Amino acid sequence: GGIITQTPKFLIGQEGQKLTLKCQQNFNHDTMYWYRQDSGKGLRLIYYSITENDLQKGDLSEGYDASREKKSSFSLTVTSAQKNEMAVFLCASSTTGYEQYFGPGTRLTVL
Amino acid sequence: GQQVQQSPASLVLQEGENAELQCNFSTSLNSMQWFYQRPGGSLVSLFYNPSGTKQSGRLTSTTVIKERRSSLHISSSQTTDSGTYLCAMGPTSGSWQLIFGSGTQLTVMP
After folding, report:
1. Closest CA to B43 of A49, A9, A91
2. Which residue of chain A is at minimal alpha-carbon distance from B5?
3. Of B69, B102, B74, B86, whose CA–CA distance to B33 is shortest?
4. B10-49 tens-digit pLDDT
5. What gap in Å lies between CA A61 and CA B104, rounded to an integer?
6. Interface contact flag, B42 A50, Cβ < 8 Å
7. Could you give the count of Cα atoms lying within 13 Å of A55 in the half-sphere of its Cβ?
8. How many interchain CB pairs under 8 A, A with B?
9. CA separation (Å) from B42 to A26, A51, B13, B77, B103?
10. How many CA within 13 A on the CB side of residue B45?
11. Nearest CA distance, B90 vs chain A (angstrom)
């Protein structure tokens, strides 16, 4: 088995601020993902990475940057937080093309 | 684009009743997953089910690839089954992302 950890669990930011979310996995999976979940909506893909230093844009990449520093870690940066934004950011990992496993999430609130 | 339709959007049961949740996919699929999410919680993978039927305890998932649908059957529901059930299709060749449905909100009353 393995585990995915996300930090921080809660993130409160100011409008216009650059905010960074971190994800670590010990499954030894090749592929990692960042999804955004808004209340009442399904999950939407922001970025994914199929190997170290690889980045692929999802449907929701505008306003975000990502970095795959090593196989086990994948970071997401909100480049300019939007006022009153509230969402949950979920990190996931998988052996490429197979079942995805999710982390506990980071809850973002922008004041 | 690819779409995933889940039904029903919400469902209220008495403890002990059975539930049948449905997912329909707009395009052909190679695989799909069922997830469970508690309010404020993360996604727990219930089934990775490219095709056919899989069972785990009181849960049974059946995916029929050529009909582009999958179902999740919950037998003898319990109050602890309450939460949101999400299905997702993919990944498919050329895209590693999952396409999610909007979920079924299940409430099991004691």
Report:
1. A91
2. A42
3. B86
4. 999 999 999 999 999 988 777 889 999 988 788 999 998 8
5. 27
6. no
7. 16
8. 51
9. 17, 24, 23, 21, 14
10. 17
11. 8
List, run by run, the mean pLDDT of 10-residue segments along chain A (111 residues): 94 95 96 90 89 92 95 96 90 86 94 89
Q: Is the distance from CB of A103 to CB of A24 less than 8 angstroms?
A: no
pLDDT for the residue numbered B95: 65
Residue of A nearest to B91 (CA): A97
Residues of chain B positioned with their CB less than 8 A from the CB of A48: 96-97
Tokens standing for residue B108: 């099991």
Contact A72, A25 (CB under 8 A): yes
